[in-house]
Amino acid sequence: ESLIAGYDVNHALERADAYVKAGADGIMIHSCKKTPDEVFLFSKEFRKKHPSVPLICVPTTYSSTSNRELSEAGFNIVIYANHMLRAAYKAMENVSKEILKNGRTEEVENSCMSVRDIISLIP
Question: Model's pTM, two decimal places?
Fold first, then answer.
C-alpha cells in the first residue's frame, strides 16, 4: 500500500524487499494513478532483485491497461478486484428502478437469473 499511501516507488521497493526476505510468497502492488507508470517502474526495479517472486497488481484505476501489457511488464497475476461487484450494484439499481416504475417484477424477469439456476449453483 506504499503507493496508495502517497509514498514513492523506492519506499514500495524497500517494503517489498523486506516482505520477500521475511518469506512472503508474492508481492501485490497497488496504485491510485490513472496510468500504470509507477507500477511498471516498480515491476521493472523489483524484477532486477526478485526475478521469480510472483508479482500481483490490481489495475482498477489504470483500467485501459491490458492484461497482456501487465504480463509483459512482469506481473504474474492481475486481480480485477471490484468489477463484478460494481456491475452487480448497477444491475440491482436498474432492476429496482424498473420494479418501482412498474409496481411488479414481470418487466425485469429477463434481467434476472432464475431461482432454479441459482439453486443449481449450490453443491
Answer: 0.79
Q: Which residues contact 122 (CB under 8 A, 6 or more apart)?
A: none
Q: Give CA–CA dist 17/23, Å, rounded.
A: 10
User: If pLDDT is split at 50, 70 and 90, which confidence band does 81 have?
Assistant: confident
Q: How many residues does the chain have?
A: 123
Edge-to-edge strand order for the sheet containing 77-78?
Answer: 27-29, 55-57, 77-78
Query: How does 22-56 read in b/e, with b if 16+ C-beta sit within 10 Å?
Result: eeeeebbbbbeeeebebbbbbbebbeeebeebebe
DSSP codes, 87-119: HHHHHHHHHHHHHHHHTSSGGGGGGS--HHHHH
- Percentage of residues of the chain with pLDDT beyond 70: 100
Instruction: Write out pLDDT tens, residues 16-37.
Output: 999 999 999 999 999 999 999 9
